[in-house]
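FORM 7B: Structural annotation worksheet

SECTION A. Query
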Amino acid sequence: MRLFDAHNHIQDERLFSRLDEVMRRALAAGVEGMAVKGCHEEDWPRVLEVVNRYPNAHMAFGLHPWFVSGRSSQWLQRLEELLTTYPQASVGEIGIDHAVGNRAPDEESVFLSQLELARRLGRPASIHCRQAWGRLLELLEEFGEPPPMLIHCFGGSAEVATELVRRGAHISFSGSITRPGNRKAGPAIRAVPADRILLETDAPDILPHGIDAEANEPAHLRAVLAKAAELLGVPEARLAETTLLNAEAFFSARSSR
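SECTION B. Predicted structure
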């Protein structure tokens, strides 16, 4: 069984300090590919280090909404330089977050400037959204034609998933779907066409339900796969292959812009 972890942060110190064993367990679990997402200027070099050490990892660079306030005055220039230097890289993690109480006042403009950069360079973009689904749809409507989009760790409704797919998005599901009280997960994942579904760990966070560990890691994608297959009523092996192919197509996508 072959798997692709569509969104993680294995450059995080909780995993980076023991990365060789983390990657060995991932391969043993069938995780043949993964996308490592940078969150702020300080961890972009570490993402590069990870990808240089492990050729099955895809690199992405972005400014996460939690780190908007701490950015340098040259952050966007530095981001564009990285993306220009590494044409195989995608943009992410970027987005908006209404679940935090101290949001940066320019959170949306920072998100949109990165989405525009992705569109201009023809790169896929990985988007974070919490408790802001209506606003995200409004921003995308105003933005016009977006680049290829991955909505990571999807926690919205089936109706929101449908609207995002209509705008061309892929929808990625994490360990949050394994939580016993998650009643949205089943309708949401069933609302997404098979060729738009992705699976992720968001490691080192969002441990799947029932796994006792200090931190999440890519090997735990098997638990996400098992729950997703159960919710969809399909064999795990078939869903693993489908989501692997979806991820490989998404992260290799380049527009002609």
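SECTION C. Observations
The chain has one domain: 3-251. The chain has a mean pLDDT of 96.

SECTION D. Sign-off
Analyst initials: ____
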